[in-house]
Amino acid sequence: MDYFLLCRNILTFLSAPSAAAVKFPHICSMTGIDSIQLQQVIAHKVGNPTRGEDLKLSQNKLSLNDKDVQKLLNKFFLSSFNEQEQYHFTHISDLALNEVFSFASTIFSDHSSFVTQSHLLAKFLHSKSTHARVKEGEMYVALFDDVPLNGEYLQAIGIFKSETKETFLKIFPHGQSLEIAQEQGININKLDKGCLIFKANKTDGYVVCIVDHTNKQNDTQYWVNDFLQVIPYADAYHSTSDTLQMCRLFVTNEYSEKFDVAKSDQIDLMNRSLDYFKTKDHFNMEEFKEEVIHHPEVADSFTKFKDHYQANREVEIQDDFTIHLAAVKRQSKVFKSILKLDKNFHVYIHGRQDLIEKGIDEKTGRKFYKLFFEEEH
User: Where are the alpha helices (DSSP H) in the chain?
Assistant: First the structure.
């Protein structure tokens, strides 16, 4: 089937009333999606050149006559973004030499160049898709109006890539009966890769939000590092997020291995770390070590782990910053406070480490935990 005919069929399938119902997430990180205006969008096919996969450029923009399809595309393109997590374009020598920054700037200044610049973006992405794990997929370039950011409504350029195909079942009328057929398509609940470039802070490299749900290994982060060449803004959100992630990895890996502590002690330190961020307005590294970590030898290990973390992740962990509550809420989802005992018991520990005792039964040799409580709910 011709590729561009396939694109049209996919859009038809998404909007067709006979297609299987698709559920959207109830909560979207980006607010106000329904008011965003999708002005232009074009699709290209981008393969992996090392596998001989071609670059197929569309010469025409997608038709946006169907309002329902526009809403579906807005949901597909925008619902995965977290507008609090902001990046900006960079370059080792001159920002103007960042290719995506340059192509986006031209589109912002001259909308008639949209198709031409989308071709240049697709060609550049194709040239960066050389790693063995990079999958072939559809690349979309879109121009939006009235995209909310920090209380303003701005113009924005979106660059998206769908790499994962799923099988859908379609029910359709056939004479006096119904028939069923399968189609390969895109799950509109799951954007694989995305970039949203806001027309703001051009001198600093614009304000950019990114999505990268596939190829997260360090050697395959071509989307962020090689194609976009973006870095986080040094703001409260990223400082809070980076520090919490570093704390979680320290407790999960370094603390448990180096100090031979019980799982309950590990969970206790995890809970105390998260509680610090939930109850404080400001983070101070020395205060955090004193109030949360307590023990000098553990604090020394924490400092060394922080230095290694910064070097390996190429991030800077600030010693003093304002805590961002949205970042705390997001990171708290991956902080685990569950004590798993074989396959029989899951114990949720929320605090009061002094009410938990661990021991070994002398007769059976089995390990046990003793929990002290006042009321049973």
Answer: 3-15, 67-78, 99-109, 114-127, 236-249, 256-258, 263-279, 285-288, 296-313, 325-332
Structure tokens at 19: 């297609």
Helix axes 99-109, 114-127, angle to 10 degrees: 170
Distance CA 273, CA 305 (A): 15
Q: How far apart are CA 6 and CA 182, in angstroms?
A: 14
* Residue 377 covered by a domain: no
Q: For 137, phi and psi rounded to 5 degrees?
A: -175, 180
| 206 in the same domain as 62 | yes
Residues of the chain with pLDDT > 70, as a percent, come to: 82
Encode pLDDT of 306-333 as tens digits: 999 888 887 888 899 999 988 898 887 7
Rounded CA gap, 277 and 283, in Å?
7
Residue 376, domain member (yes or no): no
Quick check: 120 and 103 in contact, CB under 8 A? yes
The dihedral through the CA atoms of 359, 363, 365, 370 has a sign that is negative
User: Can you give the residue range of the structural domain that contains 119?
Assistant: 3-233
Distance CA 207, CA 223 (A): 17
pLDDT in tens, 59-77: 999 999 898 999 999 999 9
Is residue 276 included in any domain, yes or no? yes
Among the candidates 174, 207, 233, a domain finishes at 233
Place of tokens 């989802």: 333
Chain-centroid distance of CA 28 in Å reads 12
Higher pLDDT, 139 or 164: 139
